[in-house]
Amino acid sequence: xxxxxxxxxxxALLLAVSPSSAPAQTSTDVIVESVNDYGPNxxxxxxxxxxxxFMRNMVFPGSRWTSGARxxxxxxxxxxxxxxxxxxxGLDSLYFDRYxxxxxxxxxxxxxxxxxxxxxxxxxxxxxxxxxxxGGGVARMPGTCRFSPMDAPRxxxxxxxxxxxxxxxxxxxxxxxxxxxxxxxxxxxxxSGGWAGAGTDGGANLVVLDISHGILPPFWAxxxxxxxxxxxxxxxxxxxxxxxANVPDRGPTFSMFYRANENTRVSTSWVQTMNSLPANEGxxxxxxxxxxxxxxxxxxxxxxxxxxxxxxxxxxxxxxxxLSSDSNxxxxxxxxxxxxxxxxxxxxxxxxxWELP
Amino acid sequence: MTRSHPVSIRGVLALWLACAGVGxxxxxxxxxxxxxxxxxxxxxxxxxxxxxxxxxxxxGPRRVEEHGFAKVVGPRGVFATHLRNxxxxxxxxxxxxxxxxxxxxxxARYGAGPDRHNAQVLEYFRAAGLPGDQIGxxxxxxxxxxxxxxxxxxxxxxxxxxxxxxxxxxVEGHAVVDSVAWARLDDRxxxxxxxxxxxxxxxxxxxxxxxxxxxxxxxGRGDFLARLPAGLPPGRVVIRHSSAVxxxxxxxxxxxxxxxxxxxxxxxxxxxxxxxxxxASTVVRHFDVTGVERRLPxxxxxxxxxxxxx
Lengths: 357, 310
Hints:
The structure holds two protein chains of two kinds.
Chain A: H1 7-17, E1 29-34, H2 47-58, E2 66-72, E3 101-107, E4 109-110, E5 116-120, E6 140-148, E7 151-158, E8 162-164, E9 176-178, E10 206-210, H3 220-224, E11 233-239, E12 243-245, H4 250-260, H5 266-276, E13 294-295, E14 298-306, H6 309-315, H7 320-323, E15 335-342
Parallel strand pairs in A: 1-2, 1-3, 3-10, 10-11
Antiparallel strand pairs in A: 4-8, 5-7, 6-7, 8-9, 11-14, 12-13, 14-15
Helix pairs in contact in A: 2-4, 4-5
Chain B: H1 12-19, E1 24-25, E2 31-33, E3 42-44, E4 62-66, E5 69-73, E6 77-82, E7 88-92, H2 114-128, E8 135-149, E9 159-171, E10 174-175, E11 180-185, E12 191-197, H3 203-217, H4 221-226, E13 236-241, E14 252-263, E15 279-287, E16 293-294
Parallel strand pairs in B: 1-2
Antiparallel strand pairs in B: 2-3, 4-5, 5-6, 6-7, 7-12, 8-9, 9-10, 9-11, 11-12, 13-14, 14-15, 15-16
């Protein structure tokens, strides 16, 4: 049980973890926050095994990573992810986005809001009425004529992405963490600078949101731009008509690539984690594919942002050995580069994988 | 159509044993890995059977034991064999710091499409010695990328960069869910990355699968299903085993696997939303021949405490 932190103690705590005295150039800590138990709302029985597995294959004798923190179930507060500069109740600089975090991994529920209407379409140009969306949340422009192997083209709209905690005593935001337009900023550090308006009291270099519907296509940039405040990479899951399987081995499989070769790319390790999960678990994706940590159709996606196209592209080349270097922290979020692997085949020549232009 | 190219090559195993020099491996050696009597052989990959190239150097590749793997390290990549369970991961050493990454983000592309890639990977693994009669199908995952300005209202169209083709394992008609072999090839047919975990399956697991199949196909079906929790969707008989990333002793058993939908918690203001609308995830549950629910080693959560206290 985490104690409530009186506001009077806040500044002392912040000073205690403040990087201002000796800014580190290297971040090695790993934090995992995992939720199995959603109380009367049900269970995700594999989240804790998943998060612990990620930690296990990152932190072991001889590893370059160090054990930062591990919280489970009701010890995971929504406040852990909220930036104090955006909301005074936020605790991210003490927990998820604390200074010297190399990797910060959350595994639990995402939300199902999809922003889609039932209005069929043949071009995105006609998708201009977000008020027709029926999938929950607050839909807004931009629109997209989205399709997938499981869905005919219909107008869909941007809707905030969020993940869910369950700590009746510790949550202060209804158990919802809105990382699209909410008070969430990842990775602001002395090395990145305070360009995001969130100070420099963060530190996560890699954020993993192992959740359902982490991104919905094609909003890979829109979804994450506000949360990018210096973080080097954000990895998550993108559904394309299916839903995410709550599996125990996505996290440990990802970090197993580190054990095998620390000079291979972090971005490739995440997307190839999909290939390495069982294919015959979960439902099929129509037309071929499915499984690999999804029930239906989905993708492992990773996004890097920075102040130039070159630096954004460079985020995709970072190996595990580079992840610890805060000199790779983002200096802005004007440009992005994204990579992903989907659990179904797409033809090599047809780029219209998600929307009708 | 790219999924489920059924392979019915009776005798492939014998052919390889006789003609291709593929012998039953001792512990730690590459090739076919013997099971107990009545079980199914496994396969252990090796660099000499691989199309992955670690790269040439004057000193030759370096061999080290590190982080639980026996590694062959070259200038271009690492071929790593897990010391305990034989898992092989071969991946390039293509990382670069952000500041030094001039066009380094460009990756090898594959332009021939998923069907061709599937056929190439199938042929590759067969030639390497993976038992052909255990290949139940092959399917492709797609690599994509996109880039642009975050201020653009419309995102740039993504591009297809390549594929990984994944072999599906079947023994006696039952999917062996946790066995995984995949490779990503470049346009010249060389392996860019690969992962192979294909352990031997003990006879007991195959016997259990036959028992379960008979039970579900006969008069005992109703009794068996009645022992399961109510309200579950239909399942299927498969063979499950410790995953490549599981700790502890190897386990394998036959399971009636059921994919159970999970709804997200009701959100503030959406209490009335139906569970179907809130469906957010899926959990696969496993029931043995007696109807008892089982947990795979990788699914068992540790009992460790949270830390640091707060």
